[in-house]
Amino acid sequence: MTHSSSAQRNKLIRYPSIEADVLFAKEADLIAQVQAGILDQVLLLWQAKSPTLVLPAGKKWPISVELTEALAESGWQLTARKTGGAPVPQLPGIINLSHIYQWPQDTPYDIKSAYLKLCDVLTDFFAQLGVSVEVHDTQGSYCDGQYNLNIAGQKVVGTAQRVLLKKGGGQVILSQACIIIDADVDQIVEPVILCNHICQHDTQIKASVHTPLYDHITERPSVDQLFQRLTSAFLA
């Protein structure tokens, strides 16, 4: 990102505590601004205020009364967004980033290079904290994908991507990452397992294949400090 006080077309927005559905509405508005050419790019950093299970929009994961009530009994809200392939838990202790940007006009879109661009930034973020990560899928993890970031084989980051059309031609990329900082891995898989059961998906989810960042570092940076480190990694 261009780091300049006069760079009005680049936006950095941070929400240390925000309800997930409110965030997704704000994110949709920012995407529309990039699509319209009002903004060149946005880095959106956030953490959910309340435990919320986020479903991918679509018929595969219907928001039913049964699911909503079962999650509510466990202390979880339910919402949906248009990215990701499977349910993702959000709660304090997991931080997120959305990078919304215009894909270069003179370069054909390539999903692998777009994902690796994000993974390289995240790898730098972890390196700043003295942690080494590898990029690969993680069998048994929720919303598994080949561009997960892992510490010693355990998933610490999940990533997702969406490609949208820009007005007047061109493409806009929504690139996302979900980073487990200090959430209890047993707690975060519970709503996913419940959702899989109610929606009759037989994917096996295991808490043990996930790991929080704070299990691997002695210091415990605040959310604001982590947001600053993520921003620095993007500006590098």
Automatic annotation (TrEMBL):
- Classification via Gene3D superfamilies: Bira Bifunctional Protein, Domain 2
Limits of the BPL/LPL catalytic domain: 37-236
Q: What are the GO MF terms of this UniProt record?
A: acyltransferase activity
Question: What keywords sit in the KW lines?
Answer: Acyltransferase, Transferase
Task: Give TM segment ranges.
Answer: none
InterPro entries recorded: aa-tRNA-synth_II/BPL/LPL, BPL_LPL_catalytic, Octanoyltrans_LipM/LipL
**Under which main EC class is this enzyme filed?**
transferase
Q: Which PROSITE patterns match?
A: BPL_LPL_CATALYTIC
Q: Superkingdom of this entry's organism?
A: Bacteria
As recorded in UniProt, its EC number(s) are 2.3.1.204
Q: What is this protein called?
A: Octanoyl-[GcvH]:protein N-octanoyltransferase
Source organism per UniProt:
Vibrio scophthalmi
